[in-house]
Write a structure and sequence with these properties.
Distance between the termini: 42 Å
Strand order of the largest sheet: 2-1-3-4-5
Structural class: alpha/beta
Oligomer: single chain
Number of helices: 9
Pfam family, one: SIS_2
Largest sheet: 5 strands, parallel
Number of strands: 7
Protein name: SIS domain-containing protein
Strand content: 5-15%
Shape: globular
Order of helices and strands: HHEHEHHEHEHEEEHH
Helix content: 40-55%
Radius of gyration: 18 Å
Length: about 250
């Protein structure tokens, strides 16, 4: 790589954040993986939720070659991804009280399941209420968030709390407030966010840990294979049939 060096600086920043996660969050990641393995062993289901760009790491572990087939995406209409029009509506919906409870109360999640809630800031009503209501319903909750926001910003929800206050396990992404790793002369705002890179790595680490935990218990992790590998479709069809009661995206 060459040019103005910004690509190298961004990749170095991302590597630095990943190294911090590896060194400082290994116990939390292991605990999150164990919760998923516990739920699977007991016949429970696993869900992942994120709004806006925080939905990308959640989607990254659902119906994914090399991933656990039983990972399900919990969706809230208008907030999953950035395809809603107008785009700012998605951000506005994150601040609507009652929306998360309505989704959980009418959806498939039940006591004994695990819900991973991803929110960079963890300060808006939607992720906070999602975690709080899920625990009320008897789910175990893993929060993947930036603790820096809880220490450097004010809550933006009626409870006055953050996502991290309503979780059984919290994994800190180490992302700084503002989610921009670079500054440069001639560019008047910080740029180059790393939250998706880091949070996706955290999610894959959690899923990998869960698979390893299941194997250590003598259980076969229900993993998917690539459909572009010979026999992959047949393998996946068998896995999906065997665990049909826990795979809700079909």
């Amino acid at each position: 790589m060459g040019g103005n060096g910004l690509a190298e600086r961004f990749i170095d920043a991302a590597i630095g954040l990943l190294a911090r996660v590896r060194e400082e969050e290994s116990e939390s990641i292991a605990a999150a993986g164990k919760l998923i393995a516990d739920a699977f062993t007991a016949g429970g289901r696993v869900f992942a939720f994120g709004a806006g760009h925080s939905s990308l790491p959640a989607q990254d572990v659902v119906y994914r070659a090399g991933g656990l087939a039983v990972m399900n995406l919990l969706t809230v209409p208008g907030t999953t991804g950035v395809d809603v029009r107008p785009a700012p509506l998605g951000s506005a919906l994150e601040r609507v009280a009652g929306l998360a409870s309505a989704v959980l109360d009418t959806g498939p999640a039940r006591a004994g399941d695990v819900l991973v809630v991803i929110s960079l800031s963890g300060r808006n009503a939607l992720p906070v209420e999602m975690a709080s209501r899920a625990r009320d319903l008897g789910l175990k909750v893993v929060g993947v968030t930036s603790v820096a926001y809880a220490e450097g910003t004010a809550p933006r929800n009626a409870s006055g709390t953050f996502l991290r206050d309503h979780c059984d396990v919290v994994v800190d992404s180490k992302i700084a407030v503002g989610d921009a790793e670079l500054t440069a002369d001639g560019i008047d705002a910080p740029f180059a966010p790393a939250s998706t890179v880091v949070t996706s790595a955290i999610m894959q680490s959690i899923v990998a840990t869960a698979a390893g935990e299941l194997a250590a218990r003598g259980l076969t992790p229900p993993l998917l294979r690539s459909g572009n590998v010979d026999g992959g479709h047949e393998w996946n069809a068998r896995v999906m049939e065997e665990y049909a009661d826990r795979i809700l995206y079909r």
